[in-house]
From TrEMBL:
InterPro entries cross-referenced by the UniProt entry: Kelch-typ_b-propeller
Low complexity: bias regions: 63-73, 122-138
Tree of life domain: Eukaryota
GO BP terms, alphabetized: glucosinolate metabolic process
The name this protein goes by in its record: Galactose oxidase
PANTHER family: KELCH REPEAT PROTEIN (AFU_ORTHOLOGUE AFUA_5G12780) (PTHR47435)
Keyword set, alphabetical order: Iron, Repeat
Name of a matching Pfam family: Kelch_KLHDC2_KLHL20_DRC7
Region (Disordered): 38-81, 122-143
Bias (Basic and acidic residues): 40-51
């Protein structure tokens, strides 16, 4: 039996603008930015940016940064994209869209949202080449991004290309605007996986390999040595989190435990209808201590409904790390429209 840790969930707002799945959630300070996703299966909802500023005002509202291609470029509507935040900018790579819902190829470029100016720009790699030459990562969806704020470096991992799944890891240096292919993660290749940067390392877990959900291992990438280490655990939902995909994973500072990983929710059994349906959605939340290497299950009086195909991010609440969750897909195949915050 795993240890337990107490926490509190608070539902802060529900709004039609937040109702979506396969979207991204990013945070700058205490402002949350939501982009992309779908309301109907395989139909990108919009390419506006919707934001909510937490704290202070008890009656929160959603404001929208509308897409305006006449004044500035912006990413096309898409689902299954990924974002990461460095300082006051949000970086986005690829995704799935267009009439055929194919992976969007943009030659290794990253869309950049300057949150201070509320405007997009396209950041091109400094040395153009091609994916076949391993000059930049190929187009994909249901991949994942994280970043190292001290080194101003973005990391991209896995996902679904035109066919199959990937297990590659790349870094993008903002200093010289270049991609570098790093050592592939341990197999199997997967989509819907999760990574997080904390304590100078990258942590990866879960995902879907095309046949089943993956669990029971936490893969740790050491940036300095370009090597992976696998830490196995019992994924029975009692001693450790069960296998899942399209879940959340973030690095947070937890009072009394220091640097931790928080993994939450996700799909544990895919729908027979594939992307058109919803499988078994989980509602559990787990904390992994970086120092003690132990899992603890989160106990809370009130909690959100189980979900997958959502996104989560770290925000600051009263000077402490908190986890924000927006939307996602419920077990009844409905898109959720809520925003919750988890505090320790």
């Amino acid at each position: 039996m795993a240890k337990t840790i107490s926490a509190a969930w608070n539902r802060l707002i529900s709004s039609p603008e937040l109702q979506r799945s396969s979207h991204t959630v990013s945070a700058v300070g205490n402002t949350v930015y939501v982009f992309g996703g779908e309301l109907q299966p395989r139909e990108p909802r919009d390419n506006d940016v919707h934001k909510v500023t937490l704290g202070g005002n008890p009656s929160l509202s959603v404001s929208t940064i509308p897409n305006n291609t006449e004044t500035s470029p912006s990413p096309s509507p898409r689902v299954g994209t990924a974002t990461t935040t460095l300082h006051d900018k949000i970086y986005l790579f690829s995704g799935r869209g267009g009439p055929s819902m194919a992976a969007i190829e943009e030659s290794g470029a990253l869309w950049t949202l300057d949150t201070t100016a509320s405007s997009w720009s396209l950041l091109q790699p400094s040395s153009p080449s091609s994916p076949s030459e391993e000059g930049y990562p190929s187009a994909r969806s249901y991949h994942t991004l994280t970043s190292d704020p001290t080194a101003s470096t973005i990391y991209l991992h896995a996902g679904c290309p035109a066919s199959g799944r990937l297990g590659d890891l790349w870094s993008f240096s903002l200093a010289d605007k270049s991609w570098k292919k790093l050592r592939d993660a341990p197999g199997p290749s997967r989509g819907g996986t999760s990574i997080a940067y904390t304590s100078c390392k990258i942590y990866r877990m879960n995902g879907f390999d095309g046949k089943e959900e993956i669990g029971g291992s936490l893969d740790v990438y050491d940036i300095a040595s370009d090597t992976w280490e696998t830490r196995e655990f019992v994924a029975d939902g009692t001693r450790g989190p069960g296998a899942r995909s399209v879940a959340g994973l973030v690095g947070v500072e937890v009072p009394g435990k220091g640097s931790c990983l928080v993994t939450l929710f996700g799909e544990s059994d895919p729908s027979a209808e594939g992307h058109l349906g919803a499988g078994k959605m989980l509602e559990d939340v787990w904390v992994y201590g970086i120092e003690d290497g132990e899992w603890a299950k989160v106990e809370a009086k009130e909690k959100p409904r189980g979900r997958g195909w959502f996104d989560a991010e770290v925000v600051k609440v009263d000077g402490r790390d908190a986890v924000v969750v927006v939307g996602g897909l419920g077990e009844g195949n409905e898109r959720l429209d809520d925003l919750w915050v988890l505090t320790f």
